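step 4 of 6: structure.
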Amino acid sequence: MFDQITIIGMGLLGGSIGIGCMQKGLARKVIGAVRRESAIDEVMAKTAAHEATLDICEAVRTADLVIFAVPIPAIAPLAKTIAAAIAANSIVTDVASVKSCVVNRMEAIFGKRCRVVGAHPMAGSEKRSIAIADPAIFLNNVCIITPTEKTDKEAINRVSGLWEALGMSVKYVSPEQHDQCVALVSHLPHVAAFTLINTIKRSSHNPHQVIDFAGPGFRDATRIAASSPELWTEICLANKETLLGVVKAYQQELKSFIKTFEKGKTDELCRIFAEAKALKEASNEPSKDKV
Amino acid sequence: MFDQITIIGMGLLGGSIGIGCMQKGLARKVIGAVRRESAIDEVMAKTAAHEATLDICEAVRTADLVIFAVPIPAIAPLAKTIAAAIAANSIVTDVASVKSCVVNRMEAIFGKRCRVVGAHPMAGSEKRSIAIADPAIFLNNVCIITPTEKTDKEAINRVSGLWEALGMSVKYVSPEQHDQCVALVSHLPHVAAFTLINTIKRSSHNPHQVIDFAGPGFRDATRIAASSPELWTEICLANKETLLGVVKAYQQELKSFIKTFEKGKTDELCRIFAEAKALKEASNEPSKDKV
């Protein structure tokens, strides 16, 4: 499929892509660019690449596909670092879970030199280590590809082909639509869960004793409050404007609930709950994003 | 343990208590008081009582333990109905998931004639039918007993003994403390989940398409939004003042999050998430309330 794939960042996602490409022979050569000397051995031990290197510019010089698999704040600085070294007309993609800011920055940095395609494979977890890398995380999950007006059609097809070869089904939406959707179904639920737990903390002298009253409903509703604070800070800030709008819409909905609740009318309250139950039950939620 | 236990309302909880008492021989006689003629056969078919009857006053006349297992709004009217018929000095208890309003009303209605003990066995589901009644729902779960200053000590012990015989571990807190705790760990998470789903509905022309982006985090966080609207309307209204306070505290916490988010400072956001993660992970949440 590719002559040389270079993966920048060999954590859970980068490592899993590397192992998958090696196993399925998706490139003549797979190179992993890493930041720490010790990571080189980890990559080789997992057979996640043919070569691992600290020299990111050298790693991209002859690649026809470069995949950014680093935390969102690291993407733009690394893109600038390699912008002069990267092969002309090569394809550049990423795995970030927020897309507008990442795709816009990459398009601005690489200009017409290479072809940027944003992607969000909805798989993984808050753990980021290559130690748990496994291409099985992609199987039967969805990868969102986020083309813009500038995106090269052939590049979209080749990136889609990679993710399909790794076992994912591919969907296409604009970066903005992607960010609005994940703000609603992923980022907002995380904010709500973190806020639920902090409300309990603030409302009680002994929050542990209060949580002793909890059942499975509480456990499920707040499971994601144990997610990585660093990862979620990064995601929230990368999707700041969109997520702020969504959190404010949630606050508005809550305010309207409180108003109805204060009036205490059975049928009005029941209608609000029934509306939510109907949409929840009608949605089949087919994908399996762990982030 | 008891001479005659009368259970008023033979749904999931009443039925499960009845079957458990029959199986373990916890009373010489178990009577189920039901509202519908057809329910008599259902009770007998499940061996959930020795007798089932529509005559609630007759059913309580010789009982030494009367258990209300009906929806919260039905408790006070039924208590008034039986107040003159019930045996003097008998013990009256219930299974309602909100306690202050129920215990206060029962104490007022029965006065010194019998001994009221509030109880909340944390087991069950939003389904209420005797068809799925099974005393196994009590095993290894917690029953909260909520004594007041007026509660008779011997009556507390006998009610505790019943729940322990059915396999539950018993904890004691005041009705007010119970209602504050369940408002925080059960009622508020339900309100938050219903509100999350309604926010998605209001924020999109095609909410189903948005939910297509959802993963397991969303599924878990909003599972309880599929709960019974009728049951949750009943619970919210029965715990109205306490829950309103808790929902407003949540709103306040959300407002403070939005302020911090707007400033966009990495370390402040990270501190909020880390605080929630720490409490979530430190809590062992031992009980298993399905409501």
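step 5 of 6: annotate
 - Chain A touches chain B through 95 residues (CB under 8 Å).
 - Residues 47 and 259 of chain A are 59 Å apart (CA to CA).
step 6 of 6: archive
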